[in-house]
Design a protein that fits this description.
single chain, mainly beta, Methylamine Dehydrogenase, Chain H, four-stranded antiparallel β-sheet, 0% helix, globular
């Protein structure tokens, strides 16, 4: 069985005050930041843990070395929201209304694959060996064969799909943002098995972590800003914990038994799983404003985050009273927008 690839991305920045569990060897901190000038907005960051690469779509899709943090190159004419990688075929896919398929060795574009309904998140699912594209409309999930890029099926889940996680054994869990639920999908039959309601105290889930061993889901929600811990077998809510403002990404590290959520307010929340029924906010790390999505380097236990810094511009003669909203790459509106315009892309590495 192939390893799940998408898991859930300024040296010297300090830490916000917060408790640190005694089991943690040292507090998390920003280890390094790689900057690259470019143009346009960003959404997801992806770590390919097998090939040791970081992928960030922005205008083109930029590629970095996850160990050295250095820029490798770009897949030109391929952009969108997020990236999924199939190690066996050496094919990568960038989510959008035109899913860009590319060769991960040559970094050359192969073709575009039309996808409906405002495609957003994306995931390589190891049980089915398929790439799943998550949309904000119907069909909610588009299934792509990574060998040749053909559409193998669709799933109507309903609602706006955000981040997803696979247990590697046939079940897929995906945030349904506007319903405040987590959908459970059978990836073999492409059928929705059930939906877990996150409860009245939950916000809109954007990030999602999965402890596959202990069957736990960590839904990172905005408005209100909480992490809802859910039993993955029956949907029972086990805990609700505070996180920062503006989450749009999260994950779980089975090596450290920690869930994490990245926030637009420039914080990274670390949640410790002391047992399958005991959870606490372990630390709040100061990152950079706008770093609302993240991914995990499983080899080094490093969390990778991304954000942009706009280049200085001369003040206009007369600014509009109400600035227009920032569209995403497909013309839709996302959580706080994707940003845009010329400026630095910051790839931030957080670890011990």
């Amino acid at each position: 069985m192939k390893k799940l690839l998408q898991l859930l991305s300024v040296t010297g920045l300090g830490l916000l005050a917060g408790p640190v569990n005694a089991q943690t060897a040292a507090p998390y901190k920003v280890l390094d930041t790689t900057q690259l000038m470019g143009n346009g907005g960003i959404d997801y960051v992806t770590v390919d843990n097998d090939a040791r690469r970081v992928y960030v779509p922005r205008g083109s899709t930029y590629v970095f070395d996850v160990d050295s943090h250095k820029y490798i190159g770009a897949v030109t004419n391929v952009t969108g929201h997020g990236i999924a990688i199939d190690t066996a075929s050496h094919h990568g896919f960038c989510s959008g209304n035109q899913v860009g398929m590319f060769d991960t060795v040559t970094l050359e574009k192969i073709k575009d694959i039309p996808v409906q309904s405002r495609a957003d998140g994306i995931l390589f699912e190891p049980f089915s060996d398929r790439v799943l594209v998550f949309s904000h409309g119907t069909p909610s999930i588009t299934v792509i064969d990574p060998k040749d890029g053909t559409v193998a099926g669709t799933v109507d889940v309903g609602g706006a799909m955000e981040q997803a996680q696979s247990d590697g054994a046939g079940k897929l869990y995906v945030d349904v943002e506007d319903e405040k639920k987590i959908a459970v999908v059978d990836v073999k039959t492409l059928k929705v098995l059930t939906k877990y309601d996150l409860g009245d105290t939950a916000g809109e889930p954007g990030g999602l972590g999965l402890d596959a061993k202990n069957h736990l889901l960590f839904a990172m929600c905005a408005n209100p800003n909480v992490c809802v811990v859910v039993n993955a077998d029956d949907g029972k809510v086990l805990a609700t914990l505070p996180i920062g403002n503006g989450t749009d990404g999260g994950g779980f590290n089975p090596n450290t038994l920690e869930a994490f959520s990245s926030q637009r307010d420039g914080t990274l929340t670390i949640i410790k799983e002391s047992s399958p029924t005991s959870f606490a906010v372990e630390q709040t790390v100061q990152t950079k404003p706008g770093c609302k999505t993240c991914a995990l380097d499983t080899k080094n236990n490093v969390i990778v985050l991304i954000c942009t810094e706009r280049a200085p511009q001369a003040a206009p003669a007369a600014a509009p009273a109400t600035p227009p909203p920032v569209p995403d790459a497909q013309g839709g509106q996302r959580r706080g927008g994707r940003g845009g315009g010329p400026g630095n892309l910051d790839v931030v590495f957080v670890g011990h």
